[in-house]
Write a structure and sequence with these properties.
Layout lengths: L1 H25 L2 H22 L3 H25 L2 H28 L1
Amino acid sequence: MKITASILSVYGLLILIGGLIGQWKASSTASLISGLVCGSILLLLSYAIARGKLLAQYIALAFIFTLDAFFTHRFAKSLHFFPAGMMSLLSLIVLIVVALKIRKTVKAR
């Protein structure tokens, strides 16, 4: 449980930092707001997952899927690997980790 929560925390921090970098480099207020909101949500979900909440795992799965779709769309539109392609790949990895954790949790019950 703690490994999944730790991975999700790192991912949330990367989203948060990405929003700050977007504001700093491109003066993008939208990047700042979305990075802060999405990163904070992911950090809260990682805390709930560390506490053993199954619902938080399902919410995190849906939220990460949405973020992955967003980053994949941005990558397909720009064809620049950094940052959209990298975040899309990272989102997919975190999505798989959370999905495997849900599978393991459900099987154990």
